[in-house]
Structures are given as structure tokens and as C-alpha cells.
Specification:
By secondary structure, this protein is of the alpha+beta class. It has three domains: about 10-130, PAS domain (Beta-Lactamase, 2-Layer Sandwich); about 150-240, Signal transduction histidine kinase, dimerisation/phosphotransfer (DHp) domain (Helix Hairpins), CATH 1.10.287; about 250-395, Heat Shock Protein 90 (2-Layer Sandwich), CATH 3.30.565.10. About 45% of the residues lie in helices and about 20% in strands. It has helices at about 10-20, 40-45, 50-55, 65-80, 125-205, 210-240, 255-265, 290-305, 335-340, 360-375, and strands at about 25-30, 35-40, 85, 95, 100-115, 115-125, 250, 275-280, 285-290, 310-320, 325-330, 375-380, 385-395. The strands form three sheets. Strands 1, 2, 3, 4, 5 and 6 form a six-stranded antiparallel sheet that branches. A five-stranded mixed sheet has the order 8-10-11-13-12, with helices on one face. Strand 1 (about 25-30) and strand 2 form a beta hairpin. The two termini are about 100 Å apart. The structure holds adenosine-5'-diphosphate. The site of adenosine-5'-diphosphate has 21 residues, from helix 8 and helix 10.
Length: about 400
Amino acid sequence: MTGSSFSEHDVADICAMLFSTAAEGLVVVDRSGAICLVNPRMSELFGYPAAEMLGRPIDILVPAAKRAGHVKSRDTYTEHPRKRPMGMGLDLHGQRKDGSTFPVEVSLNHFTIGSDGFVMGLVTDVTKRREAELQLQRTNNELEDRVEQRTAELRAAEQSVREALEVEKELNALKSRFVSMASHEFRTPLSTIMSSVDLIARYSGGEHKEKVDRHVGKIRGKVRELTAMLNDFLSLDKLEQGMVRCNPSEVDVVHVCIELVEELRNLTKPGQQIDYDHQGTERTVVQDHQMLNHVLSNLVQNAVKYSPEGKRIHLRTQISDGRLEIAVEDEGIGIPLEDQQHLFERFFRASNAFTVQGTGLGLNIVRKYLDLMGGTIGFTSVPGKGSTFTATLPQHHHHEDHPAH
Ligand code: ADP
């Protein structure tokens, strides 16, 4: 052999080698369908010695059930021979000498020698491939089953979360209905109690006057506390349901503060004094009167509640640059550092406040009102020394639908 070309002799050798070592079975059949040639792999596949196959109809290699059909299609092929894979898309099988069958793929070719036509078949045993395909199919099915199962599980989980949410919603609605019912309904008997107490005070005289007055004073104080508590619950409920809107009107801040200080004198402890001063040439703001009142009153009441006897409380207001600033300074118990970050949370009360009556709702409501008024609140406090609460809000409240220019 020279260069890159083979001699005719070489090619014949290679063909012989291919014939004897090919991984596919090779079979040549004449026009009548008789086997003329088989390679060793063919014998191996079908379990016949080569000599036993030669001269016999090719149909012996087809499973008995398919044999009649095979004879027919073979005749058709012989009339119009083409190069093609056999039985495309069909599940072809071969039958071994011992009768067992196995899946095959066959491709056909035809040729003539002289005037004799022949068909050559290339047979591949696809048992392994079919098994792999089956395995793949099984794995696919399993995977699909698993996906289906997971999807069902997810749906069930989603459903139960939804149900839990429904229950939670119902409970919440029930709770807030109860709170607003209770807050409303309790106020009526409380006001009856209050007026009866007023009457008792008026009729008390004689030797027990002092004792009666003391108890009357106690009852009044407690009724007032209860009413304030109920009012807080009611306000919070309304706020949280988004039922509260700002209703701005012109408010004389100085007037409001002087009245408030006057009113709160009843609540102060012995020796406590509330000072008030205002800075700025203007004294009116356009804000929600009730909310502003509530904020001021709550901050000053807290200062009174959380300061001991004999201490000063300082209320300051200032209007400048279109803003109202409110500061309430006390010399009271202060707020422990670790509690400061939670102060505006619902129901939160500092650890040093447990001897003082309260619900922990006041500041939460104050902050919500300030939110609605477009304001903010903050504080500084030194435990044991005192606290200063500062609220800032726009002097003129503008509705969102009537923006300021
Ligand atoms: P309440 O007074 O009903 O407990 P608030 O919401 O008004 O509820 O206040 C929350 C907590 O903040 C109080 O329990 C108290 O611990 C603390 N606090 C509020 N104001 C002051 C203050 N001026 N001095 C010290 N602690 C205060």
C-alpha cells in the first residue's frame, strides 16, 4: 500500500474483515427470499450455525405471528426495491432458533449481480436500547408521578393556609367587633355611675362628709381612667380599620394649650406644676382639632403620670417655617434604654411603669394621629432623670387630593 489509496486487493481484505467482525448481522437474500449469505454475527444473533440458515427462507427469522405479513411485504419490496430502513416506526422482532424473540432494527439495500437481484439486510440487536428506552420511560413516569404528588401536596398546603387565614380573619373581625361593642356599651353605665357619684357628693354632709368626699374622689378617678381606656380601644380600632380621616380647621394652638393645662391641673400630683410657653409670631394652625388636642393631652398626661410629686412639667409650642413643634419635658422616671426602641408599639409598657395605671396604647395612637396629620414624633430620655417628647407637624394640613402649591 502506498500513499492514501488502497489497492483492490486491500479493499477486498477490508470488506472480508468488515463482514466477519461487524457488530451488525449481515444477511443476503435472493429474489425468492432464500438466504444466500450470513456473517458470523448473524449466526450469533439468531442461534443458527451459518450452514443451517443458507438456502432457507428469510422468514424463519421472523416471529411466527408476523411471518405471513412479512412474506407479503417482502414481495412488495422485491418489486420496488429501495434503500431504506425496514418497518420505520414499527416494533420489529427477530426469532432465534430456540423460538425466543428479540427486538431488532433492520435496514435494507438491494443490488444485482448479472441479471440476479439480491437484497442485503443489516440487522442490529436493539435489546439494550429498548431496555434503556423503557427505563427512561419508567423514570419519566415516576418523575411525572412525583411532580403530580408534590403539586397535590402543595395545593393541599395552600388550601390549609387559606383556611387558617380565613379563620384568623374571622377571629380578628370578631375581636374588633367585641372591642368596639364593649367600648361603646361600657361607657353608658360608666356615665350613669359618674352622675350618681356627683349626686352623692352633693348630698353628703354631716359627720362623714370628709370620708364620703374621699371615696367619691376615688370613684371619679377610677371611672375617668376606665373611660379613657375604653376611648383608647375605640380610637385604635377605628384607626386600624382606616376609618379615621383628618378634618382640618383653623386652631388657635395657644388657646388649646392654656385650656388643656387648666384642665389637667385636676390630675397633677401634689407639688407638680405644668408650665406653658409659646414661641413665634403666629399662633394658629390648620389641623384636625381633635387629633391635635389628643396628642397634646396624651403627652402632658404621660408626663404627669410618669413624674413623682413636686416635679415640673414643661409644655412648649413653637410655630416657625410653616411647622408646629410641640415639646413636653418632664423630670420623671425616664425610660430604660432597652425599652426605648419599643415605646410606640401597641400595648408596650416600659419595665419601670408597672406601678402606674396604663394600657400601652396611648403613644401608639398618638403616633398614628401624627401620621395622619403629616407629622412625626420622637423623644429623648435619661432613665431616672426625665424625658422630652417632641412632635413636629405641618402648620397647614393639606389633603392629598388638594396638594399644596
Ligand atoms: P400607658 O401610659 O397607657 O402605659 P403609653 O402608650 O402612653 O401607654 O406609653 C407607653 C409607655 O411609655 C408607658 O407605659 C411608659 O412606660 C412609657 N412612657 C410614656 N411616656 C413617658 C414619660 N413621660 N416618662 C416615662 N415613661 C413614659
